[in-house]
Amino acid sequence: MSVKSRNCSSGTTDSYFKQIKAFPLLSFEEELELSKRIGNGDQEALHKLINANLRLVIKIARPYVTADTQFMDLVQEGNMGLMKAAQKYDYQKNVRFCTYANWWIRQYITRYLANKSRIVRLPHRKEEMLKKIQHTYNSLSQTLMHQPKSEEIAGELGISVQDVDSIINMSCGPLCLETDSIREEFMPVSDVHADYTYCPEKAFLQQSSRDNALRFLDTLKDREKRILTYRYQLDGCEPHTLKKISDKMGISTETVRQIEMKAIKKIRSRADDLKKFVMMEAM
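The structure assignment produced for this chain is given below.
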């Protein structure tokens, strides 16, 4: 019997499965209604949204089970992420709750596994500083065009070089306490802690805005829809020039321009969502 089977067949796990199956699944409309109530402080609605999605945590947690990791420990951490997602879920974005909650659940599980693998667990305040160091490292890498040194990170954050090195060392474990040369050769800053720069709210808003924009395009003629899709990256591709579109569609650039202007006029009254998506894609 595999490790996963042994973990998932225990009496505690079976009992938990039976309990959560008693909570009915929700329709999209029910999720949106619960979100409205949660925004007004309705705790009963919050509990209902959480309970209806406990099975989602089970599904996400399964692949993370290892020989030294208990399945129910992962589920517990995933449930924490689920609760966080339920509190932050916004019905106005018109996206299914499971889509939004997925990231939060995985984030809590992977953070638990990262902390579990450390011999020294960081205090909460140092954990938060570690996230800031990671974010600063990624930002400086792009602006300086080289791997930032501890001095550069410290200057950006307004803390001492000793604090930066100390937090990085604690996050690495005993190997980093040997010598600076070992840390520099085998463990660059980018490899010793997780990347927290991904923002679920931004991704959530981008997806929502993109879906709204595509719904607007469905009201247009086929050529109008294709041209706006090419011009504004609505299919995830690079933005097309008028010339590139004309070559692809076999029409003149002037015809492409006229069709584009005509299509934009048709959706002008509802163009705010399309404009917001284009601006967010450019961020």
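Interim note for the steering committee: The CA atoms of residues 176 and 183 lie 5 Å apart. Residues 97-117 form the longest helix (21 residues).
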